[in-house]
Prior knowledge:
single chain; mainly alpha; Fumarase C, Chain B, domain 1; Fumarase C, Chain A, domain 2; Ribonucleotide Reductase Protein R1, domain 1; 3 domains; two-stranded parallel sheet; 20 helices; binds arginine
Amino acid sequence: MSDSSDNKMWGGRFESSPDSSFYEFQRSWRFDRRLLPYELALDRAWAKGLERACLLSADECSQILRALDGIERRAKSDGAWLDNSKAEDVHHFVEVALIDVLGPVGAKLHTGRSRNEMVATEFRMFVKDAARSMASGVAALVEAIAQQADRNLGIPMAGMTHMQHAQPILLSHFLLAHAEAFLRDGERILDAAARADVCPLGSGALAGCAFPIDRAALARELGFSGITANSLDAVSDRDFALEYLFALSVLATHLSRLSEDFVLFASTEFGYLLLPDEFSTGSSLMPQKKNPDAWELIRGKSGRISSALVSLLMTMKGLPASYQRDLQEDKEPLFDAHDEALGMVRVAAGALAATKFNDAKLRAGATNPALLATEAADYLVARGVPFREAHEIVGRVVREAERGSTSIIELPLDALKKHSPAFGADYFKEVTLAASLARKSVPGGTSISSVRSALDQLHTRVGALEAVR
Ligand code: ARG
């Protein structure tokens, strides 16, 4: 087989061949070979398009289709063929292989088309598939969270703001808070896929195809819902990649925040959860250690996902309209961000599903009477005390309880009455953990009934993420 670097797609006007270090520098085959399945699909669609436009005979078209099948088979079975190729990029690789098999007929396939539109098309196809598998990974994660929320429904915990005990909540409510964020991620990822779903093919290098090619038929054949509207924009637009990277960055940020909660809750100080052996590692020195590496690595890797977004934004910002070679820098950060994010989502789902929650520790935290201070103020409000005044009164009760090393639910009634005559004997029945939870029964609140209906709705909403597949 001929050496691809001597068999370029653009040699004619050049007197000398490229400097060898420059040739290596500008090649993208190392990473864009990942687009080979999309390249082959595009080549097949283009061959048929050329036949429809009478630029290939039926026989030439079927020769090309057969040769493409052969290239696909060899690519699957002969890894060394791919590894040793000196091709400039994935488009060059197939063209050289095709001409190798078919000679002049193979040399006809590039009629009326440009790598500029090809790479834009194939990258869109990749992003659409990537986004769909990411959305289904995210759906599995949401399901793992929902299962834990379901299994542990009823366990109370100390809800915190500013990392200070605030009000009692259900563990399931805390878990479903994370699920909400991931549901939004799933939707955002599918939005990015929808934006990628227009086909640039027929845009040429920048000006549009010179032959009467049926763009809509090409788009349909490649699974696109429509075609791009402007050929110049079509070869220069990478918004779909930016949007996918943005969606991944937000997803990674959410995964990182979930990780932070789990690392903290696994600490001896909290002890809210037991790390699963299958998703933890030990220390080479300290025999007792079980470390939350799964969560730490997820948190750690989130940085490189957002860097991929920033990297492509920086590549794009100075580019004039139309295709520029800088655009070749779009693929590596996106491939890496996609692979890492998929790993993160899968590990998070596995680690979450295998986690055991420590009911006793969570309950112990939730029974801190200080968590009921707002409930006490609400009690006074129900007895006609204006809220601001009730807040002030309970604040003073808290201070007195603290001074006496007791709590706002253990002070005797006459001590409470000194702060406000509105306190009555029912205070001790009304200001309890159970009552506090039960009263948060608005939709979206932490009462068992609200959380149960949130769980019910969640199943339908997760379904929407998977329905697209
Ligand atoms: N490897 C190139 C890329 O990824 C393909 C398009 C090359 N076009 C060109 N005119 N050199 O962007």
